[in-house]
Amino acid sequence: MMNQKIKLCIMSLFLIIPFTELSASGLGLKLVGTRAFSLGGAFRGVANDFSAAYWNPAGMMRLNGFQIGFGAVGVVPVATLTPKNLTPDVFNPDPTLGGLYGLNNGYTTSATSLIEKTHIIPSFAFGYRAEGSKIAYGFSLSVPFGLGTEWNLFNLAQVNNYGNLKASEYPEFDTVSDIAIIAFQPTVAIEVSEKLSLGLGLFFTKADISFRQPSFSDNSTLGTVFGTYQYPYWITDTFLEGSGTGFGLNFGVMFEASEKLSIGVDVQWFGDIDFDGDVIATTYFPYNQDKINFIGGLLEDETLDAATKALYGSALFAYSGASIKNSSDVVTTTLPLPLEFGVGIGYQLSEKLLISADYMFTQWSAWYEIPININKDFDGDGTNDVTKLVEHWDDVNKYMVGLEYLIMDSDERQAFLRFGFASDGSPIPDETLSAFIPDLGTKNSVFAGFGINMGSISIDLAAQTMFVDDRIINAVALVDGDPTERTNIPGVWSLEESAFVAGLAYSF
Fold first, then answer.
1. Which secondary-structure segment (H or E) carries 216?
2. What CATH code is assigned to 2-152+177-215+245-279+326-507?
3. How many Å apart are CA 312 and CA 328, to the nearest integer?
4. How confident is the model at residue 17 (pLDDT cuts 50, 70, 90)?
5. What single DSSP character describes residue 13?
6. What DSSP letter does each residue of 63-125 carry, written as one string?
7. At residue 191, what are phi and psi to the nearest 5 degrees?
């Protein structure tokens, strides 16, 4: 019989794996188990079903037999940005005199919405404890971190006097992010005493990441006879994609203080992702017929040496309205994932009413500045490029409460109503709020769910609505004062999000 159960687990795992390539929206995702979701995530002190393998592995000692569960979450984010027009009538590359080139020359100045889509996020878990055993086993497959955004913020054809001949080839969706970090976690739990259990899980994480955004580089002809401050910077479409793997740990404690009260502690350390990928940078040059005529005339001088001809030829190309693509096959970095610490209680107030409450700390300060090594000399200084992802994120606290009420109890079935509330802040300061991760501020979420147990089968449904205030950013933030590198987009940001969950569990 046990061999059949193990075989069922393996078959279920292979059924769910093909769905893990779907995109996710929202960065910190706690979506294993519809019941836990509907309680607002206040589940570490409850953790008495299959999803304990993820929420608090020590809770698997509260199982009796085998439980397996599947879930799918549909997340619908709706974000809007109304950029602040820093220099409405001034074309000036010097931020101290007027602003940042590109921000109002090509970037939209009207309200623009995130391309709306529903992101489907799967989850899977099981747990097993034989009757009377002091050890339990489990497994979870989850997407603990992920996001997906697509914006149409920049239009190359609208850049003042740029006149690029290939502007129509510039990507329509110019600011795009897609991150899916999938965690595979085998777990084990042991009973230390009648009241105390411990659990340990090992995360194997797999990350698939891609980013696209406009970027600006200095016009190298400035300061020469070819230069014109009409074009202080060249415009580049930068696309980075890659993947990586890492390891982490999930440690849980469950203390049965009384028949009614249980206390759970869980620490999830997701470790670092060793990331390898590639970058494609397509630079679109301005078109200026006067410069072409001037440089072309210089090139007619037959006395020019080869080096001078090459210099003039490069300058001619720089004003030809053409584009050039550079790529690097090796981009490496170490992406730190945050440590999460959570503590919760579950209190069975009566036979029908369960109350739960949780607190969670997330160490998002791990995302401060992340160096990115590029195996190519894009900037022409004779060395491979090193850039950095500037985030300067802060740690975040989250508070959750949940209620579960038994509304029907018979020999054949039980039915429950569940409610939850959660409140957590944003780790992102004004200086690094961008279209990639529009986490605006304190998010207050309301949850509601319904579950029915019919013998060995359970069906659960839940929904979430999130409320967050608009965020207004007035100042542009530059990287080390460089007007070609900014880390935010000033303007008025708005965000709404809803989620819908369906889950199926089977126990025997």
1. strand 196-218
2. 2.40.160.60
3. 27
4. very low
5. H
6. --EEEEEEEEEEEEEEEEEEE--S-SS---S-TTTT--TTTTTTB--S-EEPPP-PEEEEEEE
7. -95, 115
> How many of the other CB atoms lie within 10 Å of CB of 481?
8
Which DSSP string do the residues of 253-301 spell out, in sequence order? EEEE-SSSEEEEEEEEE--EEEEEEEEEEEEE--B-HHHHHHHHHHHT-
Sign (positive or negative) of CA dihedral 139, 363, 77, 500: positive
Closest by Cα among 466, 474, 468 to 492: 474
**Which string of DSSP letters, residue by residue, matches 434-450?**
-SSS---S-EEEEEEEE
pLDDT at residue 397, rounded to an integer = 94
Picking from 312, 317, 319, 325, the residue whose alpha carbon sits closest to that of residue 164 is 319
Longest dimension (CA), the chain: 101
Q: Which residue has the tokens 């489990």?
A: 138
> CB-based contacts of 342: which residues, under 8 Å, 6+ apart?
44, 265, 266, 267, 268, 358, 359, 360, 361
Residue 212's identity, in one-letter code, is R
The Cα–Cα gap between 56 and 33 comes to 12
What is the pLDDT, as a whole number, of residue 352? 95
d(CA 174, CA 121): 24
Q: Is the pLDDT of residue 2 over 70?
A: no
Q: Is the dihedral of CA 231, 234, 237, 241 positive or negative?
A: negative
The helix-helix angle for 289-299 and 306-318 (nearest 10°) equals: 170
Instruction: Report the chain's mean pLDDT, rounded to a whole number.
Output: 83
Per-residue pLDDT at 389: 75
- pLDDT above 50 (res 7): no
Q: Is 501 helix (H, G, I), strand (E, B) or coil?
A: strand
Over 70: is that where the pLDDT of 29 sits? no
pLDDT at 88: 39
As a whole-number percent, the residues of the chain with pLDDT over 70 amount to 86
Please state, in angstroms and as integers, the Cα–Cα distance from residue 363 to each residue in 240, 283, 395, following that order: 26, 37, 5
- pLDDT tens figures, 357-380: 999 999 989 888 888 777 766 556
Question: Residue 396 and residue 266: Cα distance in Å, rounded?
Answer: 16
- Residues 330 and 46: their CA atoms lie apart, in Å, by 46
Residue 231 neighbours by CB under 8 Å, 6+ apart = 161, 162, 219, 286, 288, 319
Whose CA is closest to 433, among 374, 371, 475, 496?
Answer: 475
pLDDT of 185 > 90? The answer is yes
Q: Average pLDDT, stretch 161-190?
A: 88
The pLDDT assigned to 188 comes to 96
- 374, 333 Cβ separation under 8 angstroms: no
